[in-house]
Each structure stands twice: as C-alpha cells, then as structure tokens.
Amino acid sequence: MEHRHLGRSGLLVSEITYGNWLTHGELVARAAALSCVRAALDAGITTFDTADVYARGAAEELLGQALRGVRRESVEIATKVCLRTGDGPNDQGLSRKHILESCNASLRRLGTDYVDLYQAHRFDDQTPLDETLIAFDDLVRQGKVLYLGVSEWTAAQIREALDLADQLGLRNRIVSNQPQYNMLWRVIEPEIVPLCDGEGIGQIAFQPLSQGVLTGKYQPGQAPPVGSRAASGGRAPMFIRRVLGDELLRRVQELRPVAAEAGLSMAQLAVAWTLRRPGVSTALIGASRPEQVTENAAAAGVRLDDEAMRRIDDTLGDLVETDATKTARMMAVKPDWARSESTAGQPG
C-alpha cells in the first residue's frame, strides 16, 4: 500500500480508503463488517471513512469496534456532519449547535478522542457560512479534529469558504473534498479539480466502481446477479439502478481487454483509473466481503499507461458525464433536508 499527501497538507492517507456507507450496520452483518476492516488493515489500508448519518450512527459504532486495539496513531479516521440525524429541528445542517453536538456524538461512537478529518457532508445554505467555518475551526483548536474537508460542494461554494476563511483569519482551512468520481462520472473535472489543485485541496474520490457497475458483474439484458448490491434489500438498489442501462453495460464489458492487458481485474482497473487522475489523493472503496477489500486494495501502486487511459475514454465515449452543473443540481439541500441519508440519491 502506498500513501499520498491529502492535498498540500502534511497528512498522509493510504491510496485506498475503506468506507462503510450502505454496508456497516445496514447491508453487512457485524461479523462480516469486522472482517472487512481486518482485511483492509491487512492490505495496508490506514485511512477509514464514515459519517454520523450512515445507518443512523451504527456505521461509526462498528468502525470504532473494528479498530479497537489498533494503535490510534497508525490510522486516519474521517467522518462527516450535515445530514439529518434525528427528529429535532437542529438535528441537521451546519449550524454551530449541530456541528459541535454531532462531533461529540461521533467521537463517542467511534471510541476516540479525535478524528483526523471532519467533513461537511453537504453545503448548507440555511446557515451563515461564517458560523460553520468558525465552529469547525473551534473543533480543531479543541483538539477534537485535526483537518477539515467538504463533500460534494460546488467549486463556487469551496471558493467562497476559502475566501471567507482568509477574511476571518482562520488558520484551519479546507484540505480535502470528497466527490463522487469514476470513469463514468467526471463532473468535478471542469471546475472543481482546477480550483482544488490551485488551493492544495485533495480529492477523496468515492464510488470509483460506480456502485459496482465498473466491475463488469452487471450484464446487458440480464437481471442483477444474486448477492450483488443491485439485487439486495434496503436502499442500495435504488442508488445503483440509476446508473444501469444496457448500452452502458455493453460498453463496460468492452473494457475487459484493457483490464486483462494490464493484468488487472475490472474492479482494479476502475480504481487504478481513479488514482491516475489529477488531484486525487485517495480512492474510497466499500465492500460487503473481505475478499473484495483485498482485490480492490491491490490497485494501489498501479500506474496505468497513457494508452490504457485513452482506450478507456474511447470506449466509454459519450456515456461519460462531465456537466459541472450536475454537482449543484444533484446535491442541493432541500429546505427541510430529506430525512434519509441523501437529498440527491448519491451520498458518499
């Protein structure tokens, strides 16, 4: 496992981050979840990502249990705040009250005194941005948070936060952005990546496998295979079926020779592609079985050549989404924030 700096910060993160959205506490039994974390540690993964809203807090609890006994300084733990976590009027958003209360609750569930990275899960246009930034800065000063990040913010929102932090004289600025990013979904490339590169903000790319679509296990004209996430219970099928389509699945199958020539599985090809992209500090993977973790982690250190990258672009062609406005349209917060984990169907 190789490590990279998170943006221009001094924090090193493993090239592969293990995340537990839609798995721990929801689709994956406790024993399997613990096995997946052990597999991640065995593969050299040191960076773990979760959120207060995942499985209503159960994901954080399970991650904390899985890392119990592991030397705290040897891992990097990231979590998030913003989406609704309860029925109270302030159990949502990026107000000072919700940020401070949610951070304390996350620390209790994770069983740690601090998190390495605390991320604004979405932008909150119902709260003054200075209130949000000062609350985050206070958490760093208190030693409960080491670094700050955001997830699925637009370039304009990130720019506004950076400028305001400078105006307020805050020393603790945003060092990371966690966007959905993969071969098919590249909406961060036109605006967000150039801005972040210039400001030293690293990308924590989630869904590098596009909900498993880029593994090639979904075949055109066929029902999802038994045991796959698209065939499971819960909310997972709702998210996955948004990106399924026969033409897309046919093109994905055409990537098999590219993977084979590189000596990679389809999943490894997708992760390696993500790690090759400019500005990416780490690729965030999830898993329901430990062998999936082991397979995906093997993409660390792989360097796809220019010819492989070109063939991927040529194969996927017009199915690649690069419309920068889709981040804003898909991730916009509703006036009463949806009570599920996502206001857009693609949380990370």
From TrEMBL:
NADP-dependent oxidoreductase domain sequence ranges: 15-314
InterPro entries for the chain: K_chnl_volt-dep_bsu_KCNAB-rel, NAD(P)_OxRdtase_dom_sf, NADP_OxRdtase_dom
Family: Belongs to the shaker potassium channel beta subunit family.
Record flagged with keyword Nucleotide-binding: no
Record-level Gene Ontology MF annotations: oxidoreductase activity
Protein name, entry field: Aryl-alcohol dehydrogenase-like predicted oxidoreductase
Organism: Plantactinospora soyae
One Gene Ontology CC term in the entry: cytosol
Statement: the UniProt record of this protein carries the keyword Zinc: no
Keywords: NADP, Oxidoreductase
Domain of life: Bacteria
